[in-house]
Amino acid sequence: MPPCEGDQRTILGIRFFLGTAIQAVEKVRQGGLLVVPAAPALKDLGTNASYREALLNADLAIADSAFMVMVWNRLQGDSIRRLSGLEYLRELLKQPDVQQPGNCLWIMAGPASAERNLAWLAKQGITVPDDCVYMAPMYGERTIDDAPLVAMIDRIRPQHVLLTVGGGTQERLGLYLKRNLSYLPAIHCIGAAIAFLSGDQVRIPAWADRLYLGWLYRSVSEPRRYVPRYWAARKLLYLLIRYRDRLPVGHA
Length: 252
Description:
By secondary structure, this protein is of the alpha/beta class. The chain has helices spanning 21-28, 39-42, 49-56, 66-76, 85-92, 96-99, 111-123, 147-156, 170-180, 193-198, 206-210, 214-221, 223-232, 235-243, and strands at 8-11, 14-17, 32-35, 60-61, 104-108, 133-135, 160-163, 186-189.
């Protein structure tokens, strides 16, 4: 039988939440770090200590990786359901407290992405004040130190902080904020999910997301960028076969 803890499943040492998107939103709404690990980053779980630490110290991890879910179910005879970051974000943006101006701080990957994302949010009736948008700098691969961001969040004290930077970095940034803020907001590591809605990246229809085809849409839209990334993620298969529910520390 697969390792099971109520509404969770331990995969590669990480406790993944198995509930619905609205249940995940409710669990993190009052404060906590939510992470959405994807296969291209999960493959480095054994060697990337800071990324591993972020996942282990998150308050909620959702099983966004279709590859991980399919392999796990096959290996373990299990039937867990994938909960994608895109599905989670769609539900999150329906919430009145998220739609309230000034109640969310958005950490954007760059000015161009921010412009598209904010324009899309405005079309959905979600107004984001200028002082609730932060442009992420280039963070180091090992340590993250962003005192201006901490000061900004502590001054505004939003209920929600949404991170739209890349996987492998946003989880570490989320843990840094959790440990350094004077209070604990709901920290959502949504990554590229909003880009699939805003057009900053290829738009992924809800039906394609449900059928685990998001990777294909991204690969077709920018093959030079995404095909090597997803091809490298095949290393995750070996980790799942060898370690199953155990944490793969020190394995390349």
